[in-house]
Amino acid sequence: MWLKRLSPALDGLKIVQLTDLHHSLFTPLEEIQRAVHMANHLRADVAALTGDYVTLSPAYIWPVARALGKLHARMGVFAILGNHDFRVDPDEITRALRAQHIRVLRNAHSALRSGSGVLWVAGVDDLWWEAADIRAALRSIPARDPKILLCHNPMGIHMAAAHGVDLVLSGHTHGGQVRLPMVGSVYGRSKLGERFVEGWNRLDGTQIYVSRGIGKVLVPLRFGCPPEITCLRLRRFP
């Protein structure tokens, strides 16, 4: 993933993203623990968690938080909340993740520094719940500095592009979860059709990666759409 403004000191930074875990009867804790174990083998510099940790019940909050507490990343683990987290209990999920030393960015940001280089990681709350405040998330970040935005819903690409964000990491769509021949995604279709359902895309000068995620909702299966642990290496645009 090429970023024009990335410092040479941060060239090669590796980000591992987990999203849409949806701990529930459909996604047992063992699947999440296995995903964490696999993610750790990728030896990330940064781990990004982009929301929807639980489905329906607050009973799943602390078990999934403890599982995610086993994630290792040299420069830290960062998290935001998704629409299902807001539906269950956003404040309790925030407490549970922070108890595991995970930095939850709720319309806030944090700096990654290496030598003279800096890369800002910002996070916004969920768009569906009208809780996202990108101005607060980016406040005081110098306009010239490179910025990554963690935004659960990929429709956040519009506000990110308007504010000069370099890269957005999202989930929410499950990549479609059920993808049928000739039809495409059944679940997770965005307002722009298939454009921001999975993988890399861009809007103006802002890049986005939408991960298919790990878990399942509505139906207890994935079809034509396997789960995904995303691993991105940032490179300085020459």
What does this structure look like?
The mean pLDDT is 93. This protein has helices spanning 29-40, 61-68, 83-88, 90-99, 134-138, 157-162, and strands spanning 2-3, 14-18, 46-49, 77-79, 103-104, 108-114, 117-123, 147-150, 167-170, 179-180, 184-185, 199-203, 206-210, 230-233, 235-236. The strands form four sheets. It has a six-stranded mixed sheet with strand order 6-7-8-9-13-12. Strands 5-4-3-2-14 form a five-stranded mixed sheet, with helices on one face. The protein has 238 residues and is of the alpha/beta class. It has a single domain (2-236), classed as Purple Acid Phosphatase, chain A, domain 2. It starts with a strand and ends with a strand. α1 packs parallel to α2 (61-68).
From the structure above, extract its key features.
15 strands; 6 helices; 238 residues; 6-stranded mixed beta sheet; alpha/beta; 5-stranded mixed beta sheet; single chain
Summarize the structure.
By secondary structure, the chain is of the alpha/beta class.
In DSSP terms, counting alpha (H) and pi (I) runs of 4 or more, how many helices?
A: 6
Which consecutive residue ranges, at least 5 long each, have pLDDT under 50? none
The CATH class name reads Alpha Beta
* Rg value: 17 Å
Strand order, sheet with most strands: 6-7-8-9-13-12
